[in-house]
Amino acid sequence: MAGKLPGYGGDVEAIRTSVDVLHQVADDALPLIIDAVSDVDVSRITIADGSVSVPGIRQAAPKLAKANGIIADANGKLQSIDGVTLGALQRQLKPAQEKFVTLAETSDTLSRGVQLLPSMLGLDDPNTTRTYLVLAQNNAEVRTTGGIAGAFGLVTVKGGKVEMHDFISTSEFGSFDQPVVPLQPDEHDIFGDGLGEFMQDTNFTPDFSRTGQIAKAMWEAKRGGTIDGVISMDPVFLQRVLSVAGPVTVDGGNGMSVTLDGSNTAQFLLNEVYFALPNNTDTFFGHAAKASFDKILHSSSANPTELVKQVISSAKGGHLYVWSAREDEQKLLDGTLVGGTLVTKESGGYMGAKAPRQVIGVYYNDAMASKMDWYLNRSVEDKLVQTYPNGRERHEITIRMKNTLSAGDVAGLPDYIIGNLENGAVKGNIQFVNYLYVPAGGAVPEYAAGPNGDKGDDYAIHDGLTVVAKQVSLAPGESYEIKATVYTAPGSMNGRTVVRQTPLAR
User: Fold this and answer.
1) pLDDT at residue number 153
2) For the chain, N or C: smaller number of CB within 10 Å?
């Protein structure tokens, strides 16, 4: 009866639903989470002699999965509340909804993680060997998910025992005369055939699940065998894990060795190596990736809690991506930061909202085969201007870019850094393509680039998402801005729109 009071029915129903949700989580989900946490103690995770041990993870997985289902259901109920008229209740409800989404996201991540690890580490089937292709990305030549695959190698896993094999360079691997897999028309139009012909260009696309599929096909076509998944990491990730595992010394050739640690790895691999080892950069990059990986696997003194923190931090920043060729595992990776998949209209409602998660994408691809992107300073400002009654949001996006190289330093740059000067490129300039991806179901009615407010060079659709592409060339010291108005989809969750961008090199 109370829910039908004239003028206040929505308010009474909101209170009733909120109380029910709290009881549902406290009585049904929380005990399961407490029980699962007692099963898995992060401090008991060990990585020694190449073996990874995660005690209690199998016991925790079904408990966290059940708790996650309860929390997701409760979150859906809380987010569906509408018709609230009392100002005081509105002010209390919105922050509660936002905090509940955070709880649901955390629960979802934990649940997926404990389900994935045992199978991907081979703990569920200790008699079967898993083979993963590792892409060592070089952010100095930027790609949407970080940088070109400067080197790549295999990791084999059997019953938790991990073995890192030698890396090879892109020149050793070679290329294809035509795409190794059929490209979708939108992929061809936006990124060209190189996406399917060169291993170093497989991440032209910001959809890492697609990168994984193409990289797998390339490796199997050239080298044979079966790839069970693809892992991407960059020097920022290596630096963070070395800050925990300790330094490594890498052979640079000609009697020279380099020590990489938690403070210098990114800068050396992305810039200094081209001055110190101009004729051996590709080989050194592969040696450094393997040595760093081996250090992690064989460092018994590394603090497991700190190591987990650095891995999570790297995934959040886009410095670590994982794709699985196994459908059940990839379903768990889809929609996560470490999965790096595009969120499309087909992704379904997000955490109780009617629309998919709203992601504004800002990505980059180098346009002159250079290593100049170390000098590119870039940032994204996202300002939520207005939220409409139907859940649609209006965002003002400002993308700032600057070539931090001084004109006086151009003459001293190695040719490897300068890149390809054909087609009108200028020595010392940084030339790249910027891509603005609009959220699923959203729109970009206003777009202005540079001092003259230029429009985008190309407007396209990628997997149902609107994309605006703009080629930019920055002289030493030059800055550039792109301003855009972006609308999210109706029914999206207030305050949960995120910006995903090409990971920063430093």
Assistant:
1) 93
2) N
Cα separation of 134 and 151, whole Å?
Answer: 8
SS3 152: strand
In DSSP terms, 156 is beta-bridged to 131, 163
* Contact status, residue 250 vs residue 258, Cβ threshold 8 Å: yes
Rounded to whole angstroms, how far apart are CA atoms 358 and 499? 9
Q: Do 173 and 152 touch, CB atoms closer than 8 A? A: yes
pLDDT at position 217 is: 99
Across 248-352, where does the E strand assignment appear? 248-253, 256-260, 320-324
Identify the pLDDT of residue 125. Answer: 86
The per-residue pLDDT for 351 is 61
Predicted pLDDT at 1: 43
Whole-angstrom Cα Rg for the chain: 24
Q: Are 372 and 419 a contacting pair, CB within 8 Å?
A: yes
Contact of 345 with 440, CB cutoff 8 Å: yes
Q: Chain-centre distance of CA 42, in angstroms?
A: 23
The H-or-E segment that residue 382 falls in is strand 376-387
| Tokens matching residue 128 | 């079967």
| Short-list 287, 432, 444, 351, CA closest to 75 | 351
**Cα dist from 416 to 145, 278, 282, whole Å:** 22, 7, 11
pLDDT of the residue at 350: 64
In whole angstroms, what is the distance from residue 237 CA to residue 29 CA? 34
Give the Cβ contact number of residue 262 at 10 Å: 16
pTM across the whole model = 0.91
Q: Helices in 360-488 by DSSP H: which ranges? A: 415-418
Q: Which among 249, 242, 286, 289 is positioned nearest to 263, based on CA atoms?
A: 242
- What span, in angstroms and rounded, lies between the C-alpha atoms of 8 and 85? 7
Residue 377: how many other CB atoms lie within 10 Å: 14
Give the C-alpha distances (Å, rounded to integers) separating 66 from 1, 29, 46, 327: 34, 8, 27, 21
Cα(143)–Cα(205) distance, rounded to whole angstroms? 8
Q: Which two tokens stand for residue 345?
A: 């209209």
The pair of three-digit structure tokens given for residue 242, joined into one six-digit string: 């070395």
Rounded CA separation 454/36 (Å): 55
Give, in degrees to the nearest 5, the angle at Cα 366 between 361 and 369.
Answer: 160
Q: What is the pLDDT of residue 355?
A: 62
In 3D, which of 230, 213, 291 has the Cα closest to residue 259?
A: 291
C-alpha–C-alpha distance, residues 378 and 220, integer Å = 36
pLDDT value of position 221:
98
Domains within the chain, CATH numbers bracketed: 2-120 (1.20.58), 130-313 (3.40.630.190), 350-501 (2.60.40)
Secondary structure class of 6 (helix, strand, coil): coil
